[in-house]
Amino acid sequence: MVEGLYSNDIKDKEYELLRYSFDNHPILAENVNERERYLSALTQIIYSYSDDRMRWDFKRSEFAETLEVNIEYSMSSADIIRFSKPVKRKISFWRKEKTLYSYILILESLYFIRLLSAKIPDIHCFKEFKILKIKEKYVRLLCDYFSFVIDNNYESARQIIESVNDKSIRKQFVYFYDIVFWNNCYTELPITNVAVCATMSAGKSTFINAMLGMDCIPARNEACTDKITIIRDNDRLKKIIGSCVKADGTKIYSNRVDRRLLDEWNDNQNVLATRLEADFEEIGCENRITVIADTPGTNNSGNVAHHGKTLGYIEYNKIDVIVLLFNSEYIGTNDSDILLKEVKSIADKNGARVVFGLNKIDCFDDNELLSIDSMIKSLHDEIIAAGYPSPIIIPFSANAARIFKLVLKGKQLTKKEMREFDLLYQFFTDFNSSEHMINFVGKNNSDYYKYSETDRVLNVFGADYSYNSLISALGNTGIFSLEEIIQKQPNG
Ligand SMILES: Nc1nc2c(ncn2[C@@H]2O[C@H](COP(=O)(O)OP(=O)(O)OP(=O)(O)O)[C@@H](O)[C@H]2O)c(=O)[nH]1
Ligand SMILES: [Mg+2]
To answer: Which of 118, 152, 158, 279 is most deeply packed, by most CB within 10 A?
Structure first.
């Protein structure tokens, strides 16, 4: 076993590098030539201090994509020097705006050099101050500001920002501060560790994809998930970043994790575990970070290694919440009963809270609503018999929530999803999961998907649907209730 396989690497410098985004970069206001020159100047400076060009090139290609510039742009020293002069931009017929980008160039250079090189230059002797013709007064200001931001000295950094009169320079200071300060605070937050467990094909991975609002984690109707995938919530991320740990202990990082890469990591026997960071839409990280683990199915008749990985993970790691999912299609199977008891003894030993989700509720015939309640009641009795005092059971449909979210976002559906969509929409227009919960008042509304004031029409495969009705149907799937209960602190 590789040591620290599942340990929290939130402060890992590689993640600091992965988190930094150019999404709101001030240089985006300039034309393509200026944007190209900015990236090239930044690269020139970083190359001259860091031996590890490959790591920067990796990041550079991501920035090139955000700035929509050519990565092959040939660099010259003149590119750096050029940023000692303001960029002039015509903003109307009679008015020109001048912006000096040397400040943000310095701050970002120092920041990336710090992350990429073993030896950090003495910032006061940073030769680029001279090259960029930065006045002595500003050299001091930049050095102080950089140190304050890096050290999380909020008050002093703020004071410097307020002392800068030039609006465009202040904007650059604020932009840098906003990213770095937020990222620094993020790494200090307390963590709630959640593990989603179930027998094979109960919909664990689909549930996680539904919470992310995108199809990232491999999910199919066969023994699928082969290793623990731990996903850390980060509200600021618009994409998925992550790493995998290999058998020899090495880590591979990616600044754009997608389904193809995760399939590859999941199927590669040399990869032991996967760590991702992404935004769980309904889960906030203002006060604490929720980290959710997808685990392999635990069927005893199936892959023994899968059973061992999942049980070992929840037993030997600090897990605060265990989400135990049941598959409505196969209630009361021997495997789910064994898992119920195994989880109980581990949760008791480690003090973990257990919440129960009854997935694939859409597999019921909507003429048999009564049988849904009696089925939930019998599951409730079974859970009590396993020793859980007053279990909360959330009936839900991970697949319906996932598909509804894709439609609300205007994403393309596969042919199979298109066929499923209309049936699921009909089902969850009538069926409200909240009305079937035991020991819990369900939550139907979302902080992320809001009703539109004047309803909109969504065309899905030639048929029209009301946007607001689809949001109601999404609420009726029960996913928001399950997300709410996962986040509930035991004392609050
Ligand atoms: N009808 C229905 N099917 C679902 C639902 N959620 C998941 N499925 C389907 O169930 C199958 C298994 O889903 P996965 O998410 O891979 O299940 P899993 O628990 O991660 O499976 P393993 O990783 O193999 O243990 C897939 O074909 C999903 O499309 C649901 O709410 N309703
Ligand atoms: Mg899975």
So the answer is: 279
Query: Between vectors from CA 8 to CA 7 and to CA 14, what angle results, nearest 5°?
Result: 115
Closest ligand 1 atom number to CA of residue 206: 15
Instruction: Write the pLDDT tens digit of every residue in 459-490.
Output: 888 889 999 999 999 999 999 999 999 998 76
Q: Is the dihedral of CA 300, 303, 304, 305 positive or negative?
A: negative
129 and 225 share one domain: no
- Compute the residue count for the chain: 492
Distance 450 CA to ligand 2 centre (A): 29
Task: Assess contact for 485 and 192: CB atoms under 8 A.
Answer: no
How confident is the model over 99-144, as pLDDT tens digits?
899 999 999 999 999 999 877 778 888 889 999 999 888 899 999 9
The protein residue with its alpha carbon nearest to ligand 1, atom 13, reads 203
pLDDT digits (tens, 9 = 90+) for 439-452: 888 888 888 898 98
Tell me the best of 298, 358, 399 to mutate to test the pocket of ligand 1, counting ligand atoms within 8 Å of each CB and taking the most.
399
Model confidence at 492: pLDDT above 60:
no
DSSP summary character for residue 466? E
Does ligand 1 have an atom closer than 6 angstroms to the CB of 360?
yes
> Does residue 204's CB lie within 6 angstroms of at least one atom of ligand 1?
yes
Measured in Å, residue 360 CA sits from the centre of ligand 2 at 14
Pocket flag, ligand 1, residue 53 (CB < 6 Å)? no
Number of domain units in the chain? 2
Whether ligand 1 lies within 6 angstroms of the CB of 200 is answered as yes
465 and 334, same structural domain? yes
Residue 407: domain span: 191-236+279-487
Structural domain includes residue 6: no
Q: Is-contact 204 195, C-beta < 8 A?
A: no
How many angstroms separate the CA atoms of 43 and 77, rounded?
Answer: 10
325 CA: nearest ligand 1 atom: 19
Q: Please indicate, yes or no, whether residues 215 and 180 belong to a single structural domain of this protein.
A: no
Ligand 1 binding pocket includes 120 (Cβ within 6 Å):
no
Among candidate residues 293, 264, 263, the one with its CA nearest the CA of residue 280: 293
CATH number at residue 228: 3.40.50.300
Instruction: Single out the residue in 123, 156, 187 at which a domain terminates.
Output: 187
Same domain, 155 and 196: no
Any ligand 1 atom below 6 A from CB of 216: no
pTM above 0.85, yes or no: yes
Instruction: Give the tens place of pLDDT for each residue, 98-108.
Output: 889 999 999 99
Quote the CA–CA distance of 17 and 38 in Å, as a whole number.
18
CB-ligand 1 contact for 477 (6 Å cutoff): no
Is residue 5 within 6 Å of ligand 1 at its C-beta? no
> Distance between CA 332 and CA 19 in Å, rounded?
44
Residues in a beta bridge with 36: none
Q: What is the pLDDT of residues 33-81, one digit of tens each?
A: 999 999 999 999 999 888 788 889 989 999 999 999 998 877 888 889 9
User: Does residue 85 fall inside a structural domain?
Assistant: yes
Ligand 1 near 198 CB (within 6 A): yes
